[in-house]
């Protein structure tokens, strides 16, 4: 295998992407499929699953809430049935959570953010690890964190707290699973173009009393490269971390954020 060949994931990988029917998750799922992987996704949005099935019929799927243990168990029943095992888990499920001052936050929204952004990572890892230990294809977990997992993020404390926690979970699992040949890394996307960030920008603009246009410019000014990133940028890094070229990369929090300097 040449160095250039090693930059692509091995064909035939069995891959599970959580929240994989739309957004970053769908781009990652399709990228793995294009690379020759067998891909299964789960998502809470049934309409998005239907759209993905129409656009990428080779990707199998399960309808599930990633924060509910019983739903996660059903996903793994489907994974065993469709893929026959697992080589890669992309723990991508996450929500933006509420925006506001800490004293005004609804505790229920805090708990929901923790459930989706953090608990789901644990629930999927605990079920995936036995399958990954049986893999002979350089198995790995990619945990989706955020640039908010390395920087403070005023008015977005539930989101930032969970994304920092994902880094702690990732680094601990990398140590725990390394002797079994399972690699674990995290990706920290910055401001990703799309509908989700548009909503975040609108909410933060309202919370701070500026226009959405001014808030968007502020986000861009915070990056050294003066631009947002794309879902394709994140997918490319995911594929690299699951490729032979990254066989000795584990326990790392890799930013894909145009060098965001502050939030």
Describe it for me?
With 263 residues, the protein is of the alpha/beta class. The protein has a single domain (11-256), classed as Rossmann fold (3-Layer(aba) Sandwich), CATH 3.40.50. It is built from nine helices and seven strands, in the order H-E-H-E-H-E-H-E-H-E-H-E-H-H-H-E. A seven-stranded parallel β-sheet has the order 3-2-1-4-5-6-7, with helices on both faces. Helix 5 links the parallel strand 4 (88-91) and strand 5 (140-144). The longest helix is centred in the middle third of the chain and has 28 residues, at 107-134.
- Could you name the ranges where pLDDT drops below 50 across 5 or more consecutive residues? none
The total number of structural domains is: 1
The separation of the N and C termini measures: 42 Å
The tally of beta strands, per DSSP, is 7
User: How large a portion of the residues is in β-strands, by DSSP E?
Assistant: 5-15%
Largest sheet: 7 strands, parallel
> How do the strands of the widest beta sheet line up side by side?
3-2-1-4-5-6-7
Question: Helix count?
Answer: 9
CATH-defined topology: Rossmann fold
Structural class, by secondary structure, is alpha/beta
Order of helices and strands: HEHEHEHEHEHEHHHE
* CATH domain class: Alpha Beta
Report helical residue fraction. Answer: 40-55%
């Amino acid at each position: 295998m040449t160095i250039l060949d090693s930059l692509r994931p091995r064909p035939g990988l069995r891959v599970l992407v959580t929240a994989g029917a739309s957004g970053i998750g769908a781009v990652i799922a399709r990228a793995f499929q294009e690379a020759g992987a067998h891909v299964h996704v789960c998502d809470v949005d049934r309409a998005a699953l239907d759209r993905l099935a129409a656009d990428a019929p080779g990707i199998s799927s399960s309808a599930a809430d990633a924060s509910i243990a019983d739903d996660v168990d059903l996903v793994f029943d489907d994974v065993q049935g469709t893929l026959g095992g697992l080589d890669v888990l992309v723990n991508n499920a996450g929500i933006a959570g509420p925006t506001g001052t800490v004293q005004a936050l609804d505790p229920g929204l805090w708990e929901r953010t923790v459930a989706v952004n953090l608990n789901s990572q644990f629930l999927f890892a605990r079920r995936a690890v036995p399958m990954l230990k049986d893999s002979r294809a350089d198995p790995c977990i990619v945990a989706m964190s955020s640039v908010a997992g390395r920087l403070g993020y005023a008015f977005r404390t539930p989101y930032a707290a969970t994304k920092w926690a994902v880094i702690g979970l990732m680094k601990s699992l990398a140590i725990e699973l390394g002797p079994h040949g399972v690699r674990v890394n995290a990706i920290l996307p910055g401001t990703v173009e799309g509908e989700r960030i548009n909503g975040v920008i609108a909410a933060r603009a309202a919370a701070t009393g500026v226009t959405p246009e001014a808030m968007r410019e502020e986000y861009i000014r915070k990056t050294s490269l003066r631009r947002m990133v794309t879902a394709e940028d994140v997918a490319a890094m995911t594929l690299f971390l699951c490729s032979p070229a990254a066989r000795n990369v584990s326990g790392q929090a890799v930013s894909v954020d145009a060098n965001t300097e502050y939030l």
